[in-house]
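Re: export button greyed out
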Amino acid sequence: MSGLRALLGLGLLVSSGSRLVAAAGGGRCPVQRGPPAGIWGAGRGRSSSAMQNPGRSGVKYLSQEEAQAIDQELFTEYKFSVDQLMELAGLSCATAIAKAYPPSSFTKSPPAVLIVCGPGNNGGDGLVCARHLKMFGYEPSVHYPKRPSKALFEGLTTQCQKMDIPFLSEFPSEAMLIDELYGLVVDAIFGFSFKGAVREPFGSILRTLEQVTVPVASIDIPSGWDVEKGSPDGIQPDMLISLTAPKKAAQHFAGRYHFLGGRFVPRALQQKYSLNLPPYPETDCILQLP
Amino acid sequence: MSCPATQSGEQIEPLRYLSRLEAEAIEKELLEDYKFGRQQLIEIWGHASAMAVTKVFPLPSLPRKQPTVLVVCGPHQNGAIGLVCARHLRVFEYEPTIFYPKRSPNSLYRDFTTQCEKMDIPFLSYLPTEVQLINDAYNVVIDAILGVDAEPGEVKEPYTSILATLKQIQIPIVSLDVPSGWDVEMGNSEGISPDVLVSLAAPKQCATRFLGRHHFLAGRFLPYDVQKKFELNLPEYPGTECVVSL
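Workaround output, generated via the alternate export path:
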């Protein structure tokens, strides 16, 4: 530590826009942080029973407003770009899927996955996820009926197309057809901004997804669900990948696998919103919640 | 998958080492044909570089009491990749410090700087020339100064002095893509000797002159058609990893 103090003493540390400006020259080690960071393998975790009940020590389930506020802050205060965070989010989704549904677990070979992308950022997450699934050895197909004319989404679409990921022009009309062709469906239709009525073609798509027997993995929010209250009549996914932090709807999730992904929330932001996120294992970009 | 490996996983065809022109052509194709965004690529590479660092220097293995890492960033893309690498190391609970003497005016790269600042990653105002200070304060140095786009033989200040300092330090150096100060193809026998080289997407020709302990390939996103077109013969990445040891 003495070397670092020497650097501090020489007034070498400069950090604008950060709380450390006050610390420099004060002899305090700038690398001291809030609660001590755990080192790996220490088996430090919160008790699993605390997870589902958002008590004092449990992970926080966000309201729609909080989710939107955190998102806004990541972009306006922290200056993350949508491109960056979407890439990390999509990678988390693909990694979680590969963990729960490895290619060897598929009855068909090659392991075919259908990704249904909605008209907003959740759809973008789906496109990134599709691309990474391809790199992991899956055979993804995408259905992307409503595409925003923004460079970000056009770019992500091109990346997938140029990687020979087929884009279905029509959604399979019957659940049985989906069960026949694919071993898994990824629901990337609606995310945490969803409000109000489901517009076509997504109403029909979701009704079909309610009937499929192959597992459905939802990105962030099971599509069609109220972001806070859930939906007993809607799709019942087998997997939910909550991005950043789980939303209140996740409390109604009854599937087998709940993962947390999107490992990019700065510690200060976590503290500001009292997210109480459990520690991610080592360098993993996903964390399985009980 | 079209990865050319036998059942036992051995390479049939040897890994290709790229010339500067080929490396630039690949990047051009990714940006113009595949419509990857530059920020997207930098994020992918920075994240993968951080993963590579953690493979060689896992947190519990670091000799110093604090898991400090010095990240030296140059003015162009390689530096931006270093900033993203630093940020991910911070997420992984390392304690990076950045030295970024000439900040890029490019607004894309400015945001990367802000992200690091807002995550409480300190920025040094100058690099001590007293090598022992660096040896004492940090466990590892990440060299993110110059990449493929560096003009050979035209390294200017402050980088000549920085590289002279790095030549003398005794802690390991991890170079991102190209050891800074090396010619992309010919290397540099007078230059720095990194302990670890993290080749981004595919190794460059100078990597054949790399004598350090670990060489990683990082960034698992290259479309198979690009790999085939440039005959890269990349090895298989294990599981869902984004880095592979060469």
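The radius of gyration of chain B is 17 Å. The button fix ships in the next patch.
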